[in-house]
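Researcher: Quick one. two chains, 1020 residues in total.
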Amino acid sequence: MATSEAGHSADQHAGDAHGHDHDHPDYLAHHFDTPEQQFDSGKLGMWLFLVTEVLFFSGMFCAYAIFRAWRPEVFEGCSQFLNTKLGAINTGVLLFSSFTMAWAVRASQLEEHKKTAALIATTLCCAMVFLGVKAVEYSHKWAMGLLPAGLFSYDENNPHPPGPNWLLYICMPFIVITIGVFLWMVFSWATKAKFQFQCAKPLFFVCLSFFGGVYLGTVLEPKVEDHAVHASADGHADAAEHAEGDPHAEGDSHAEGEAEAAGADEGEHTEEAHEAAPAEEETEEPVIELGSVVPKSGTMVDTSRDLEIQRKLASVEANSAVRDELNALERQDMNASGAITYHQTDDTSNTIAGSEEDVMRRSRAGVFFSIYYCMTGVHAIHILAGIGVLVWLLVRSLRKDFNRNYYGPVDYVGLYWHLVDLIWIYLFPLMYLIR
Amino acid sequence: MSAGKISSGSEIDDPGYPTPEENYLTNSKGLLSWIFTLDHKRIGVMYLVGVSVAFLVAGLLAIGIRLHLMSPDGWFLETGAVKAITGDKPTNDVYNQVFTLHGAIMVFLFIIPSVPAALGNFLVPIMLGAKDVAFPRLNLSSFYLWMFGAFFFISALLASGLDTGWTFYTPYSTTSNTSVILATSGAFILGFSSIFTGLNFIVTINTMRPPGMTWFRMPLFLWATYATSIIQVLATPVLGITLLLLIAERTMHIGIFDPQYNGDPVTFQHFFWFYSHPAVYIMILPAFGVISELISVHSHKRIFGYRFVAYSSIAIALLGFLVWGHHMFTSGMSPVTTIIFSALTFSVSVPSAIKVFNWLATMYKGSISLTTPMVYAIVFIFLFTIGGLTGLHLGTLATDQHLHDSYFVVAHFHFVMVGGTLVAFLGGVFHWWPKMFGKMYSEKGGIASAALVFIGFLVTFLPQFILGSRGMPRRYATYDPEFQTLHVASSIGSLILGLGLFVALFVLLKSLFSKERAPANMWGGATLEWACTSPPPFYNFQRAPAVDDPYDFTDIVWDSVSERYVRVEPERKLAPEEQPAHAGE
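Model:
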């Protein structure tokens, strides 16, 4: 982090007392003696900053671990709502951007200015694609009411209620920025401001790549109307999960057909679910699993769909009496005190899922989305911050600021970018791949 | 001033290069030169002013609490003058807000940045022999983040107050209708300020040491600052995310901490104390560093057990991360967990005790000058020892069941935070004041302030130990009449304490208007800051400083002709028979 001392008066400088004034290059801040010292300081500072970043995320990873340990079934169930394809694409995009970033560091060391700029611009494009895909994912979930616990309003009878076009809202600022950059590009081209045009051109493509990401996302994320197509296309295990807990089974001929094929039992089950709790969805799973004595981890995934559903339903019936009893107890507890209810053993807490208490039910599925939004949201903020510093780097690299003795900023931003990438690499399996 | 004056016409190594006009205070002029300064010394001075204002606000709130508790049914907040401000809010609500803001402002705005940010910024580069911290712009930005955070706190105060206690425990903090979001945003921002300061110091100490400044030639203040910085960097982010999640809990009900949405309030406590217990060491470790300097310089004797004092700072920093659970013995943890946390808590007392013993051993047979800083240092040792030992009662599982959330806890942490950190901060300010501003204050006034602070403090907080052990719970606006005597004693003590602090402020501010200039080496210190002029020049050292043992006082002698300490050349040292026994070690 180069620092130039603005307030430094000339006569102090002329004091020649520091013993190193003879060669103090422009990029060397005055309070450093050598470029090495400056580079080492910056690098150590960046590493320490990354340590704080890791600890910052560690709080959320910790929350994730706690809640997943308590309610593995909620996490497994809710994870089905995340589109693995989009997550995988974003992982690939970020990995590739890390590669271009590392290459940019090397190029800046070799003083290949054009290459440095091009690679930084590529990194930026990847970041924008990532955000574009994320925008599609978010808007899709918001539309379905898959929101944090307190706002969670998902209704399997009506999974796609009419609502605002969230995607458009998210895209709005990007559209404005893109138009702005475009105008800047045209203006600088028209006025023959060469350097500005040099900056605006890659930035325009960077902006466009956001919409590339949005396009990619909308192609792969099923449209609101045919969500269930995705459900069935998403793999056999997926479909099994969806058909029994999944909401999209209703009101959609395709999924309904599947459900019928699954057997009369399933039809019964869906009706039952309707009568008991019209809005119940993911939260139903835990109860089923409690009865079925099947381990909570994804052992059921590979079982054939029909068999599995039948077995689950059988166990639900067998345990329905027990469940009602426990639910009654549970409601008493809740009335007594929220905090006491809270510290129950695993077994009892599973029965909360069976409770028809609305708030409790919603929040049990909602906590997954709470953690999902917190972690990916904070991660997205880091991507945005990364985009900010990368733009700054792009301008500086186009200005040919970096050379073999001074490439610190590229290196530091590279470290930061790798960390952001790394965090996503942890988030992807933890969120998307719980099966 | 000093008991160790000797007469010697030795050559004076007074750094004569800069004229008084060329110091950091005068090298550029105007408000903008301060607002945009990158000079660590000016930033340190701005912090000093800032934290003092925060301390004044929080201190007045404390006086308000004490005055209210003069009567069992509450008095002060019921009076017309206060009612005129608070309007028709119920008195007990006002009381809750007053103690909350007292705690929150004291912790986040005053104690945490007091020694590290104010004194640390001024001293770390100079003591190290560097021109500035590694990242001057980051340094300035952490000051403005501090200002920004303070602004949020003041907004919370003016908006609808805050009544959650400084700990923001859920579920109350998610339901309270006061400005929780404003205050937590403020604390979040202040966390970044603290992280950046810590990061800056770690890098500065690692990479900016001049040739000759090895790790074990560093003054102990730097070791303490380094240890503090480690905690700031490692613990504060966890507070940041905790507060962020709390804000999300309030706005979106994410159901992580709020039991109403199936969250777990104990998780919040774990997260919160994972930062806030180490934060206790952010508050006290720099104070240890200050005291190590003060004791050694004013005893004119090498610090006893330098390496032990240095390592114990690091040990406290690391052990401090493992003991957060002792705040939650009554919150519902498994017995095994509580036993482990209790045992780890006791282990922290070992490095703390090492420090106290080493300070006492340093004073033993030293040539002690009872200057203002030294008096503060002795007060510190006395009060901190009581504070530390009473901590053991709270770390013991059985006694904690009885003492938890009582006035005993209040008294304990005030002995450490006020009797420890605040007293060390004042001692440090008095010690380095002549260096910072080139002006010497009235020693009589300084010692009077120390005496008032000491007496006022004891009268305020000793009764609280008794109150707590008799069952007076903390944070109550009213109490049983049987407690009144002790409460009134405590309230009177707080007024004496407040008077002492005002005397200190007056003495220091008055000195700024005196014409006499303080000498470069006011106290006969051997660390590098005494090798430059008072106040220091803009870049601290015009020539590369000769780094030597920071606690070798043998070459520094009192020159009665020029009435200041001078460094004699080793070959011109007095013959052993001429040398008074106390002049060196």
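The radius of gyration of chain B is 24 Å.
Researcher: Thanks, that's what I needed.
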